[in-house]
Amino acid sequence: MKPAIRTEALSKKFGRTIAVDSLNLAVPEGAIYALVGPNGAGKTTAIKMLMNIIHPSAGATEVLGIDSHRLTGKAFNRIGYVSENQELPEGMTAGEMLSYFRAFYPTWDLALERQLVRQFDLPLDRKLRHLSRGMKMKAAFASSLAYRPSLIVLDEPFSGLDPLVRDELIEGLIELASETTILLSSHDLAEIESFSSHVGYLEQGRLLFSEEMSVLAGRFREVTVTLSSPSPLPANLPAAWLQPQTADCVLRFVHSGFNEQSSPRELAERFPSARDIAFDPMSLRSIFLAIAKSGRNRTTSAPDSVNAKEAVA
Amino acid sequence: MKQILHIFAKDTRRFLPEILITLTMVIAWISIYRHIWLSFPWHGPFDAWSVSGTWVFVDLSPLILLGWWLLISRVLLAERLVGDTQFWITRPYEWKSLLAAKAIFIAVYVYLPILAVHCIGIAVEGFHPQLYIPGLLYQLLLVTAVVLPLAAIASISSNFVRMTLTLLGAAFCLAIAAELPASLIAGRIARPINIEISDVILFLFCGAAVIMQYALRKTWCSRLLLIAIPALICTVGFIDPDRLLMNYNYPLPTHDAPAPVQYSSNPDAASATTYSMRVANHVGIRFLLRVSGIEDGSGIEDNAARVSIEAPDGFRWTSSWQSQS
Question: Is B85 within 8 Å of A101 when comparing Cβ atoms?
Answer without folding.
Answer: no
